[in-house]
Structures are given as C-alpha cells and as structure tokens.
Design goal:
Layout: H1 3-9, E1 27-29, E2 36-38, H2 39-46, H3 51-66
Antiparallel strand pairs: 1-2
Length: about 90
C-alpha cells in the first residue's frame, strides 16, 4: 500500500463533519475537496446541485494527472466513487 493510500484509507476523522472513523468504518473521498469523508457526508455531497459537474471535472483532472482510468482500483480516482476501509 502506498503512502497516500495508507493516509487516506486510515484517516481517523471525516474532513467535513469531524466524525471519528474506526478501522472498519467505510469512508470515501470527496469529489469536491478530495479529502476522506464519512458515508453520511458523501450522501449530503451527492445532493448538491453542482455534484454531477464537480464529479465530471474531478474525473477529467484525475485522468490527466494519473494516466489511469477512474475505475482502476490502483488509482486515486477510484476512491472517490467506491468506499473503502483501513486495512
């Protein structure tokens, strides 16, 4: 696991609401801030009127930066749409 994966996967707090995240708690990256957020905050984020546009822009930026498709589990982009836990 790379450093960025470990830092993200094992984040102890949601960057939005500050809720504590235990090892087995699911978490995901925000398409707005690219920080680790809890699933409740992800649900709130998805209700934003600009969410679809922000998600598309994030995918484009991520593809350009990483060279990997956003659906690749090894890529940073993947974690914006698929929840994960600390291993």
């Amino acid at each position: 696991m790379s450093d960025w994966e470990k830092q993200l996967a094992c984040a102890a707090r949601c960057a939005v609401c500050g809720a504590g995240l235990q090892q087995k708690d699911p978490r995901i990256l925000s398409v707005i801030t690219h920080e680790v957020i809890c699933m409740d905050c992800k649900g709130d984020e998805e209700q934003r009127p600009d969410y679809a546009d922000r998600a598309k822009a994030m995918i484009s930026d991520c593809l350009n930066a990483s060279g990997r498709p956003y659906g690749s589990p090894e890529g940073y982009c993947f974690h914006h749409f698929c929840r994960f836990t600390c291993r």
